[in-house]
Amino acid sequence: MAQYIIDISLPADPNTEFFALIPRQQAHIEKLLEQGVVMGYSLSLDRSKLWIAMNAHDEREAVEMLTAFPLFQYFEPTIYPLMFHNTSLMSLIKVSMN
After folding, report:
1. What domains can you pick out in the chain, each with its CATH number?
2. Tens place of pLDDT for every residue, the chain, 98 residues?
3. Coil/strand/helix, residue 78
C-alpha cells in the first residue's frame, strides 16, 4: 500500500449544485476515514484548496477513488506520492467521558 497527498484546487465561485453536494461529500470522506483509505484531510481558510492524505495500491487506484467523490467534477487534483504521512496518536484516540 502506498500513500499519497492529493492537492485539490476548488472553484473560485462555486454554484448552488456544488454547495448542495457538500453533505454527500462529507459523508463519503467520513466513510473513507473509517475504512482507513483517507488518513486525513484539510481545507484552506479561503476554501480554494483541499488536501487529502490517502492510502492506495498505486496512483491509478487513487484516481479511481477520487472519481467516486460527489464533488469530483469540481476538482482540479494533483497527486503526489508520499514517503510517509505521520499523524499524532492523540488525534486517533476517541475518548468517551461515559
Report:
1. 2-85 (3.30.70.1060)
2. 999 999 999 999 999 999 999 999 999 999 999 999 999 999 999 999 999 999 999 999 999 999 999 999 999 999 999 988 887 655 555 555 55
3. strand
